[in-house]
Amino acid sequence: MAKTIMIQGTMSNAGKSLLAAGLCRIFKQDGYRVAPFKSQNMALNSFITEEGLEMGRAQVMQAEAAGIKPSVYMNPILLKPTNDTGSQVIVNGEVLGNMSARDYFAYKKKLVPAVMEAFRKLEEEYDIIVIEGAGSPAEINLKQDDIVNMGMAKMAKAPVLLVGDIDRGGVFAQLIGTVMLLEEDEKAMVKGLIINKFRGDKTILDPGIVMLEEKAGIPVVGVAPYMQLEVEDEDSLTERFHGSQEVGVIDIAVIRVPRISNFTDFNPFESMEGVSLRYVHNVAELKNPDMILLPGTKNTMEDLLWMRQNGLEAAILKAAAAGKIIFGVCGGYQMLGEKLSDPLGTEAGGEIKGMGLLPMETVFAGNKTRTRVKGTFSEIGGPLSSLGGVELEGYEIHMGVSTLKEGCRTMTEIADYANGSEGQVKEDGAYCQNVYGTYVHGIFDKEQVAKAVVTDLGRMKGIDVSEITGVDFQAFKEQQYNLLAAGLREHLNMKQIYEILEAGIGKDVSE
């Protein structure tokens, strides 16, 4: 059976996901079959597996670092917030239903068999499982029925590495406070402490580390540096939304709607020299971009109303009238139509007027479309004509059905594929003049697609963008995972971590 090790944090955004990914890559490099696992993930960035099942993208990123295909067994429970107090609950890739926070808290213990079944599947196939916790294990109001932090560590018999974020300050209080709030049996499972996101001279930190080890009675197994890597992060706490608003030669603006999902669709543009990808929250930040991207959202209708109220919709309509390219993905695509109807109350319920940039209507259905697709762009017209005939690949996750009207042409021809077999070819998306939309997430991931878009944007501005080249996004991500592993090898005591892994929870391990 697989050996296990678990990464828990003193708070959200302490760096658990990244450290888990780094350990996955290190173990892979050292010749082990390794898989990530997170029993419960709350995120709007999700992914569709080859089997047509839905899971959180954080575990997809970690699976990539481990060099294996993503599986829903790596994330058996996914919570997708629909509002401030409720979420869509997805179990082993299938929608269970919508629940309020209180209802889910009362129900979640019933999901333990599903969690453990998924964990056992991985345990049978891999040598090492790297488990990630969520938030903090010291949330004393939530500990009773915990299934993702110490509760999961006990079920998996996994030794724990506790991570604190020094970049936010107060890291010693974070770590000591968390340990103090643990029960004695829980504290005994914490075999190592990690200080994460450190910048500066470590020798200045050393006296504090000595005191930390004395007070906690737990060894510090590393001080990980603040690493500037282009690796996917948790959607709710990403620093991408607060990045530079500096405008590049080619400027692309993403509308940061309140319930934004799958913004990873646009990551390939971040890797292109001379291209700025900015997330904008209001009209003042929008400026004068060359292309406006409308992202996916967990609540299309309410996010459209939010844009309508704060003036962003009017600014986008003005930009479209001026000939700027408007491109919507999934929920953003639905917003571009003339009408959105929700007769079953799948989202907000009722009916609202769309932006009217594409002659189409969308009706939200009760069933969710979940599939991986591949195909080609049609011989499309308009300013993005370079996309014609270019191959694409991605996935669909949506509950709306869009019907095109006269004057609206489809943008792509795609086929579903699952378990190596392709389905019938179907048409997807739409374009009309300088407005484009698609249901396909990941549509820009292929180098040729992102490069064609940037080439056309440059041509519209009369700029030679021959020096701005596309990036093989998969190769780029591989490079980033290797850099992550190298950085952690240098700053973590991997000998000690391997000893913790081998010993499990049976005994303490020290230098």
Estimated radius of gyration: 23 Å
> In DSSP terms, counting alpha (H) and pi (I) runs of 4 or more, how many helices?
16
- Gross morphology is globular
Taking the sheet with the most strands, its summary is: 6 strands, parallel
Mean pLDDT: 91
- Could you tell me the number of beta strands? 26
* Beta-strand residue fraction: 25-35%
Query: Which consecutive residue ranges, at least 5 long each, have pLDDT under 50?
Result: none
**Order of strands in the sheet with the most strands?**
2-9-1-10-11-12
Q: Indicate the structural class.
A: alpha/beta
* Cα separation of the termini: 26 Å
Q: What is the helical fraction, as a range of percent?
A: 25-40%
What would you note in describing this structure?
The model has no long low-confidence stretch (mean pLDDT 91). Helix 1 packs parallel to helix 2 (57-66), helix 1 (16-29) packs across helix 15 and helix 6 packs parallel to helix 8. The protein is an alpha/beta fold. It has 16 helices and 26 strands. The longest helix is centred in the last third of the chain and has 19 residues, at 473-491. A hairpin with a 2-residue loop joins strand 25 and strand 26 (435-438). Strands 2-9-1-10-11-12 form a 6-stranded parallel β-sheet, sandwiched between helices. A 6-stranded mixed β-sheet has the order 15-13-16-18-26-25. Strands 19, 20, 21, 22, 23 and 24 form a 6-stranded mixed β-sheet that branches.
